[in-house]
Amino acid sequence: MNTTNKNSPNISYISVSQMQRILQKIGTEHFIAGIVEYLEQDFAKWESFDKSPRFAAHSPDGVIELMPIGDHEKFSFKYVNGHPKNTASGLQTVIAFGVLSDVDTGYPLLLSEMTILTALRTAATSVMMAKYLARKDSKTLALIGCGAQSEFQAIAFINMLGIKTIRLYDTDPEAIKKCYNNLKNRDVHIVLCTSAEEVVQDADIITTCTADKKNATILTSDMVTAGVHVNAIGGDCPGKTELEAKLLERADVFIEYEPQTRIEGDIQQLPEDSPVTEMFKVIRGDRDGRTSDEQITIFDGVGFAIEDYSALRYVYDLVSNNESCQQLELLASPSNPRNLYGLAMTSAE
């Protein structure tokens, strides 16, 4: 009789409830800081990764994407959607899950929810980029868009950059109220604003994070003064933008992966030869980031697979020695690897 190979590893599985427990045990601030550490490690070895723009299946109402990447040790991918209309039906705009695998065997190591984890890694990416691009004395963050990402962004900047004032604006007053209620017990001054023009006043860093799948001008050039860093993370698919082209032309623009950002980022508005800097060069010290207090910097962030790889790797290291971590029986593993049929015909225990 052919039986299952008892030595075959199962996959560590992180459900939404398990991610909640991990996050509440560690704390949002420490979790984001941990991802930042892994991000910097992985961006520093940029050339070791097999990279490609993500695969995207677009529809009138949204997009479904696969985001793969790997190096000589591990491979990961994320399934993620973006459907702005979902909130009207009580559904999330973005849901995701991801897999981390061992390259030597091809066996998956971790299957994890990534709806919460994507928000955490996006905040970690934003604050990591701002470490290199924002003025060191930055104290005020303006948030344009108070949706699912907003609190994670605020907490990251408060904890890692020492932000003291958060200014909030959204076209939906209920979203502003939600964000305020989630942040009001933090050690930060919160200012509620009624327009985009008001929210950017006196801001050192401006984060734009809106959901509408359209070419929009959330931030115009005249709204941004010298020395400001713009963390533009809402433009993430073809035909979706947040920044006025004139602002991009005034600033020094930094990106993740040029072949993808040219398709999906705010720089899709610019000529293909417009100057941009991939951030791995800045993180590694090959190129300058901020060079003066008067410089306007923009991180045109669309989300890249290396960030998911880093986040999954961080979670895997957190749980790999945890005996209470749930194991998922997903892989067929006959005791005789050549007799898969024999396993299929064996009664399940």
Automatic annotation (TrEMBL):
Cross-referenced Pfam families: OCD_Mu_crystall
UniProt superkingdom: Bacteria
Entry EC number(s): 4.3.1.12
This protein's UniProt keywords: Lyase
Matching InterPro entries: NAD(P)-bd_dom_sf, ODC_Mu_crystall, ODC_N
Alphabetical list of SUPFAM superfamilies matching this protein: NAD(P)-binding Rossmann-fold domains
A molecular function (GO) term: ornithine cyclodeaminase activity
Protein name from the UniProt record: Ornithine cyclodeaminase
Lineage: Bacteria, Pseudomonadati, Pseudomonadota, Gammaproteobacteria, Alteromonadales
